[in-house]
């Protein structure tokens, strides 16, 4: 079988593109604008930052951060509002500003800058496929081959000599010649782009061969060739096969649009299991926290390989260093998982609540919920508790594996098809606790939030934000970045689950993973969890699923409480608006429907309250509805009545803490997309082979790829 042709494919990504564009337009500093000593700058849209330069990042400013917060932590930062354009306004400049009035982002200036870069790229011999306004894929295969064959190429030995490799690793000039020529061509193109536009460009280059690799160019790391530390050879990490799949020419020899299967977590796992020697459940995605602000490096590995590499020889002591122990498992959106909880509360704002009392309340509430709602008991021997509390904060992870059917004398696994289903289960548990808080220990699950700026608000012991897609969840023996407190195995639960407190660390690390669900494990099924429920359903039902609860207070009065904080706020606010104009009594206001239009807008229709600001009184037959604007943190009233068509009430501000959970989930999603994008620029080892065993299947190696963020 003839060898596969080598290919030289580059992924160009303009660094901090929108910020570079604005810095050039406003003459902020001098090129290169991505230098660490350039003025800190960011581009904002409304109250949030959509692009941040490296100088600002060094101060802790992050994409998605509020503008006010960025100005606080980096007083000298220059914030430029993205140009906006309103309907009917032809002059873009007149529409620029921070006002929201039906304006949309204008990409005119950024588009012109992108065209400048594209013009430079098109003068090269590479075949080009634009992926977005600031990204392009280039195929240098033909030019690299011609330079090698014609003997007119660059000095490969000189390029190899400048490559920054781990100690003891050398670049094989002969085997990696295609790789090195491509690095030269990419660097030459980057120099041309900088010379003509002033913009700096990051680049990832990959070559498909037996010896394959990648070069990633980042500020201060130009020309670094990253080699595999595990194999101790010149087998370089790469994403060649993945990019070849993206850029595979069609029958006409043209490049198709990039396929989004290049997503780092999907592609890495698919490449690992496609050989057939590993099953999907045997492979996981892991994250290592490597910097402040959630900066992470992702790793695709078999569970066995990961545990073998990262489990400590024995249980660490408190005095042992924690600098490199910041590992997380990533619970992918389509990955089975056990029922898990993240329990936490501030001991500073809840000095009267003892940790043992809080944990007992959780155990009793979970047991009562399972018995009352599911008709099953919690199997105490299947519960793992991991402890990470400090004098300032109560913090535990709990993983539940099984329920008991005492009538049938059997166990029922508590494994879910995805963590969205686990989140739905937990939401029902919290609703149950809220409805029974006055007559049970469940009242101890409702605590005062950590003090911020406003506070005194109530939150729950159970953190419901940890069930978002692609969630990173800390592993046993690991600490958070810049923190010393590790996640440790609770002695009592360890003795019950493992029959003795401290099993071998490798076994403990593996079996405490939320995603370690062995094959043929029966997934949990109940009417609480709709068939096929996933993250898209969770998004649309995130608010809608919180039904109102009927509770009796200490004086015996019956109250209807909308359990979701946002819906409860809307109901109470609009009841107050009506009370200013009309006299009661009124039946309890309820939420009739709730629809999430997109990430920004939510529409909520009320029943038993039809008060309309336009009419000045309640409609007899037509409902009113509220439009929630997540970005503006406000809502306004509209109406179904034809006479009120086009009316929009004044806005009502929504307290920041109410939208905190939803905002955290959206920012987590945006952060994950950023990680995926950066991970594409790092090497994903897909088909690297040992030099002395060129035909060894990819799946026989324990760790296949690493991606950096």
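^ Assign residues to that structure.
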């Amino acid at each position: 079988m003839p060898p596969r042709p080598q290919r030289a494919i580059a992924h160009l990504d303009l660094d901090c593109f929108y910020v570079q564009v604005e810095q050039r337009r406003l003459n902020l500093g001098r090129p290169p604008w991505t230098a660490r000593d350039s003025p800190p700058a960011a581009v904002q849209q409304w109250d949030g930052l959509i692009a941040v330069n490296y100088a600002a990042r060094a101060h802790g400013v992050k994409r998605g951060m509020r503008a006010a917060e960025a100005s606080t932590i980096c007083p000298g930062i220059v914030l430029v509002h993205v140009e906006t354009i309103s309907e009917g306004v032809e002059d873009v400049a007149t529409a620029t500003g921070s006002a929201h009035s039906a304006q949309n982002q204008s990409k005119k200036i950024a588009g012109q800058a992108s065209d400048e870069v594209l013009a430079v790229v098109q003068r090269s011999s590479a075949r080009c496929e634009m992926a977005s306004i600031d990204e392009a894929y280039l195929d240098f295969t033909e030019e690299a081959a011609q330079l090698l064959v014609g003997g007119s190429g660059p000095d490969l030995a000189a390029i190899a000599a400048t490559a920054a490799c781990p100690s003891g690793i050398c670049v094989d000039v002969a085997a990696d010649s295609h790789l090195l020529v491509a690095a030269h061509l990419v660097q030459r193109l980057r120099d041309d782009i900088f010379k003509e536009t002033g913009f700096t460009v990051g680049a990832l280059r990959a070559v498909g061969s037996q010896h394959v690799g990648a070069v990633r160019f980042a500020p201060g790391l130009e020309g670094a060739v990253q080699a595999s530390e595990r194999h101790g050879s010149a087998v370089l990490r790469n994403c060649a096969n993945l990019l070849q799949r993206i850029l595979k020419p069609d029958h006409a020899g043209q490049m198709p649009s990039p396929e989004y299967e290049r997503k780092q977590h999907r592609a890495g796992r698919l490449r690992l299991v496609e050989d057939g020697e590993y099953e999907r459940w045997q492979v996981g995605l892991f994250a290592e926290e490597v910097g402040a602000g959630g900066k992470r490096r992702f790793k695709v590995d078999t569970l066995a390989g990961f545990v073998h590499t990262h489990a400590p020889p024995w249980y660490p002591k408190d005095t042992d260093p924690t600098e490199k122990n910041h590992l997380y498992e990533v619970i992918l959106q389509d990955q089975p998982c056990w029922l898990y909880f993240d329990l936490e509360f501030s001991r500073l704002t809840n000095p009267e609540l003892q940790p043992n009392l809080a944990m007992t309340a959780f155990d009793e509430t979970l047991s009562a919920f399972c018995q009352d709602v599911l008709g099953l008991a919690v199997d105490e021997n299947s519960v793992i508790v991991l402890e990470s509390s400090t004098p300032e904060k109560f913090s535990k992870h709990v993983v539940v594996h099984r329920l008991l059917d005492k009538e049938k004398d059997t166990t029922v696994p508590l494994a879910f098809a995805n963590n969205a289903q686990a989140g739905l289960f937990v939401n029902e548990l919290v609703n149950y606790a809220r409805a029974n808080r006055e007559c049970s220990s469940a009242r101890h699950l409702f605590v005062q939030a950590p003090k911020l700026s406003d506070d005194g608000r109530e939150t729950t012991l159970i953190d419901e934000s940890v069930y978002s897609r692609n969630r990173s969840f800390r592993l046993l023996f690991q600490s958070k970045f810049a923190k010393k407190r590790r996640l440790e195995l609770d002695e009592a639960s360890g003795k019950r689950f493992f029959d003795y407190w401290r099993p071998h660390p490798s076994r403990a690390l593996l079996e405490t993973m939320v995603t370690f669900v062995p094959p043929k494990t029966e997934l949990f099924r109940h009417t609480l969890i709709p068939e096929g429920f996933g993250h898209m359903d969770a998004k649309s039902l995130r608010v809608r699923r919180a039904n109102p609860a009927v509770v009796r207070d200490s004086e015996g009065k019956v109250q209807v409480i909308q359990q979701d904080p946002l819906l409860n706020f809307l109901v109470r606010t609009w009841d107050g608006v009506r009370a200013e104009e009309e006299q009661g009594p009124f039946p309890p206001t309820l939420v009739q429907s709730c629809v999430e239009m997109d990430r920004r807008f939510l529409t909520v229709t009320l029943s038993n309250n039809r008060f309309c600001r336009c009419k000045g009184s309640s409609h007899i037959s037509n409902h009113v509805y509220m439009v929630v604007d997540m970005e503006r943190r406000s809502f306004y009233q509209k109406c179904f009545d034809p006479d009120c068509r086009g009316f929009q009430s004044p806005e009502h501000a929504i307290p920041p803490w109410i939208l905190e959970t939803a905002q955290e989930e959206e920012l987590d999603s945006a952060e994950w997309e950023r990680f995926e994008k950066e991970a594409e620029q790092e090497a994903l080892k897909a088909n690297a082979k040992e030099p002395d065993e060129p035909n060894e299947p990819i799946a026989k190696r324990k760790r296949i790829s690493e991606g950096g963020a």
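The longest strand covers residues 337-346.
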